Amino acid sequence: MVAVHVLNGPNLNLLGTREPATYGAVTLAGVEARLKAKAEAAGVELTFRQTNYEGELVTFIQQAGLAGAGVIINAGAYTHTSVALRDAIKGADAMTIEVHISNVHAREEFRHHSYMAPVCVGVICGFGVASYDLAFDAIVPLLEKRAAKPAA
Ligand code: CA2
C-alpha cells in the first residue's frame, strides 16, 4: 500500500484561527480531515503531523523515508532558512513535494527562496489549503509508479 506523510511546520497549528486573509479559514484539523477522506478513497495510508520544532521535522522526514512513504511538506518559515530540512529530504531519499498555502512569490522577497525545493520533485503554492490536495493528487501516481517498478 502506498503511504504518504503530510508534515507541517511552525505556526501551522494556528491555521484557521489567525490571519485569514493570508491563510484562509480552514483549520489544520480541517485539512487533515479532507486529506484523510481523499486517502481513504484512494487506498492510501496517510500520516498527518505538525510540529513547531525544526529537529522534530527532520525526524519526521527520516521516519517517512525509512517507511518508503512519500512526503508532502509545508515547512512554514523553515522553508526559507533550513539546510537541515534539505539534507533530511536528500539523506532520507524521501520523494517529497513542498507545499504552501499562500503564493510565496507574491509576498516578501525572503519567502521567494526555498532551501528544500531543489531536492523535491515539485513545489505547489498559492492555492490555499487546496495546495495540499493538489500535492496529494500529484504524489500518489508517482509513488504507485515507483512501487510497480521491479527492484533494480
Ligand atoms: O503559505 C504557506 O503555507 C507558508 O508556508 C506559511 C508560513 C510562511 O512562513 C511561509 O512563508 C509560507 C507561515 C505559517 C504560519 O501559519 C499561520 C497560520 C495562521 C495564522 C498565523 C500563522
UniProtKB/TrEMBL annotation:
Pfam families: DHquinase_II (PF01220). It comes from the Bacteria. Its EC number is 4.2.1.10. SUPFAM superfamilies: Type II 3-dehydroquinate dehydratase (SSF52304). Keywords: Amino-acid biosynthesis, Aromatic amino acid biosynthesis, Lyase. It catalyses: 3-dehydroquinate = 3-dehydroshikimate + H2O. InterPro entries: DHquinase_II, DHquinase_II_CS, DHquinase_II_sf. GO terms for biological process: amino acid biosynthetic process; aromatic amino acid family biosynthetic process; chorismate biosynthetic process; quinate catabolic process. Substrate binds at residues 74, 80, 87, 101-102, 111. The active site is at residues 23, 100. The record marks 18 as: Transition state stabilizer. Pathway: Metabolic intermediate biosynthesis; chorismate biosynthesis; chorismate from D-erythrose 4-phosphate and phosphoenolpyruvate: step 3/7. It is an enzyme of class 4 (lyase). One of its GO terms (molecular function) is 3-dehydroquinate dehydratase activity. Catalyzes a trans-dehydration via an enolate intermediate. Homododecamer. Belongs to the type-II 3-dehydroquinase family. This is 3-dehydroquinate dehydratase. It comes from Bosea lathyri. The gene is aroQ.
